[in-house]
Amino acid sequence: MKLHVRIFAMFMLSMAFLACKKEEHRLEPVLDKSAINFSVTQDMAADPGGNTVILQNNTPGTLSIWDYGTGTSTRKTDTVKFAFAGDYVIKFSAVTGGLVVKMDSVVVKVTQDNLNYVNDPLWTALSGGVGNEKNWILDTDGIFFSGPLSFYGVNNGWLKEGAAWADGANATGCYGGDCWTWGPGTGDIYPNMMAAGNYGVMTFGLKGTASFKAVKPMENNATQNGTYYLNVAAKTLTINNASILRGYKPAKNGLTGVSNWTNYKVLSLDENSLQLGVIRDRDVDGEGPAMLVYNFITQEFKDSYVPPVTGPDEGFDPTFKAGELLSMLTGTTSGRLWKLDATGNPVDWIGKGKGWTKSHADSRDWGWNASWDAAAADSWILFDRVGGQKYTRNQNGVVTTGTFTINEATNEVTLNGNLLIQNPGSFMSPTKNTFKVVKAFPGKVETNGIWFGTDYNAEKDEWFAFHYVL
């Protein structure tokens, strides 16, 4: 291997000389193992049991590669904290002269447990806590998420808190310039992006060590055993010698479109649900970089899940008594004022009785975007029945009035001579003055609002709908 590298380097230098290049290109000399200095030191003041270990590369001009069993690092200096007593093998390699020189391993003995390093609520949510383990499966049935696989921008991250979206809207989970989401439903996933089937179980444990196991029927019935480390501050997860349950099958690279199946972003994690993201950094169908986000639920959550008795999506295709829809829209005769749920979940594609969005972030930028934030900011519609069925519509200070009619047989509402909220240039902007109430909650309108379907796709049996709240 060294001979090939040096021959190639000499060839490149010769070509550079023949091309009359003024710059000289040469590899730095490869250091011998005896010239490489590094240290592995247990900080006994921090932990009497030696749980805190300081890694130090003391050799100038070299790059570091650390493997400490529960994780890896490329830092010159790093600090590792082991929660459990035991012997840990520290492996160090230095990149020098274009080659990797492996040094002799160092074994550190940790004599006491320090469970403070794994008692964070996120560690407990992932593993069940010290002395326990927890089983996770892909949400292939769309029980909690819209499906087992979602797509995000490479700068998306922890969704519970964080920076605003790049365009300045008040949403979370964006930590750079490439932020977007697309969360296809289970019908879109199969068979387009993941083969239907049993993807198995992965287990995170904290029984004497942070252990990981994955049983993968969809990957040649493989069983993988490894370790893991959850970085609570950075919201990242490292899995050593194994990988998560996964699936991805575009026309070209499939799973090979991801070069790193060791390090994951944690987008969300609680007692029942988990989202882990990996960067698709290799070209797949010319689509460019993106983050594949795998959506998991616990096995226990799935086993205890009881589908709602009201149908695939509560409130879909409601049945009203005579006059009930009119009362819902107008309340008393003085009327009710409605506005888009712009800070919550303003739009949805309700197909076959089920929607998939949970917030405007789910369709951010390709659906809901900054122009819709502006259009909805000071817009509302008032339905009343003072001297007839009338409406007043305000959009950013432009007020229009008219009458409306209701077709109780079809749950359709028609604004005579006007359209619902408008956003010129957007494909979501309504083009018809008749819309259908596709989802509503009689008796709960004050808290749940109402969904107005403005466009129907017969091929998918799918309504595009706006969510209006009081």
Describe what is shown at a glance.
With 470 residues, this protein is mainly β. It has 7 helices and 27 strands.
Question: What this model shows, in words?
Answer:
The protein has 470 residues and is mainly beta. The chain contains 7 helices and 27 strands. It has an 8-stranded antiparallel beta barrel. β23 (398-407) and β24 form a beta hairpin. The N and C termini lie far apart (71 Å). The model is unreliable at 1-23 and 163-171 (pLDDT under 50).
Topology:
Elements: H1 2-18, E1 38-42, E2 52-57, E3 63-67, E4 72-73, E5 77-81, E6 86-96, E7 99-102, E8 106-110, H2 121-127, E9 133-138, E10 149-152, E11 181-182, H3 186-189, E12 201-206, E13 210-216, E14 222-231, E15 236-240, E16 263-269, E17 273-280, E18 290-298, H4 299-304, H5 324-330, E19 336-340, E20 347-351, H6 370-377, E21 380-384, E22 390-395, E23 398-407, E24 412-415, E25 434-440, H7 445-448, E26 450-457, E27 462-469
Give the helix tally: 7
The helical percent reads 10-25%
**Terminus-to-terminus distance:** 71 Å
What portion of the residues fall into strands of 2 or more residues? 35-45%
Largest sheet: 8 strands, antiparallel, barrel
Mean pLDDT figure: 86
How would you describe the shape? Answer: elongated
**Sequence stretches where pLDDT stays below 50 over 5 or more residues:** 1-23, 163-171
From the alpha-carbon coordinates, what is the Rg to the nearest angstrom? Answer: 29 Å
Determine the structural class based on helices, strands and strand pairing: mainly beta
Q: What is the β-strand count?
A: 27
Strand order of the largest sheet: 9-12-13-14-15-16-17-18
